[in-house]
Amino acid sequence: MIIYVEEKADPKQLETLKEWLDDIGVEVHSLAGKNGTILGLLGDTHKVDVEMIQGLDFVRKVVQVKEPYKSSNRTFHPDDTVLEIGNAKLGGGHFAAIAGPCSVESIEQICDIAKAVKEAGANMLRGGAFKPRTSPYSFQGLRKKGIELLLHAKQITGMPIVSEIMDIGNIAAFEHVDVIQIGARNMQNFELLKEIGRTDKVILLKRGLANTLKEFLMSAEYIMASGNEKVILCERGIRTFETQTRNTFDVSAIPLLKKMSHLPVIVDPSHASGISELVRPLALAAVAAGADGIMVEVHNDPEHALCDGPQSIKPDAFKSLMDDIKKVREVLF
Fold first, then answer.
1. Which helix (H) or strand (E) holds 25?
2. 3-state secondary structure of 278
3. What's the Cα-to-Cα distance from 53 to each of 6, 23, 25, 119, rounded to whole Å?
4. What gap in Å lies between CA 325 and CA 329, rounded to an integer?
5. Which residue has the higher pLDDT, 159 or 44?
6. What is the pLDDT of the chain when averaged over all its residues?
7. Buried (b) or exposed (e) across 207-234, using 16+ Cβ within 10 A?
8. What angle (nearest 5°) sits at the alpha carbon of residue 216, between those of residues 213 and 217?
């Protein structure tokens, strides 16, 4: 339920209303908008006397929210959420690029790539330390050592770092990681989502391989309901009957998510196709569709990468992509 309050409402009257709602067990989220204050009510709202509230002279209207996702709903939060991560901003017209290897392999590899992507215009460095792999015999990542190498690259370049967590038991290793990624396979790991929601980290949530947008936002809701509202939504392709690509890139998800939610929406064109030659066209399509950012896998020697080499682009290709993105944004935005 949402209560729209008039711009010139008496602060004392507004506070009295909030206290009454709190007394009947309803959680109130207050947001100051351009045309007044919006009160978002969470929890059991059956006790709320809608007619009584609607009759208050400082209340413009009361709206029932039908969607099960509340905190992530744009109706609750009309303005875009803007996240500040290091020196970068994401959302609300601010575009950010996250780039780096699928997996951290060595100190030389991660530092060389970090320097290259920063010079090309990346705002954040990505790198997998704990790797979820389909085969138990594939490279599983350097784990805590990989986090240490990412932090070393951060110290050299000053770039915020992004890395994926698989088990809440490893949360201590992510103490200095700027953005914690929840991968597609864990999008509906609700216990992990609740626990990560108790942190103060920015959370990058990837859409599951076969999940609807509603299910995607409900997963974001788990994080936000636990107290952490710093969530980034990432479209990374879904599984369909098509076999020419690793996944099918759902470009329609970008404008739809931005209509449904106030959270920043980015895309991962590397996982969306699994083919390095498709990273550029898919990334540009995402930018044109209104994405707030991209996350691209960049490797200086993809032919010998320990993980996902075929979908990784080289630093010079990333530099060219960033130049093209700038041109597209200048024309459209």
1. none
2. helix
3. 13, 15, 16, 55
4. 6
5. 159
6. 94
7. bbeebebeebbbbbbbbbbeebbbbbbb
8. 90
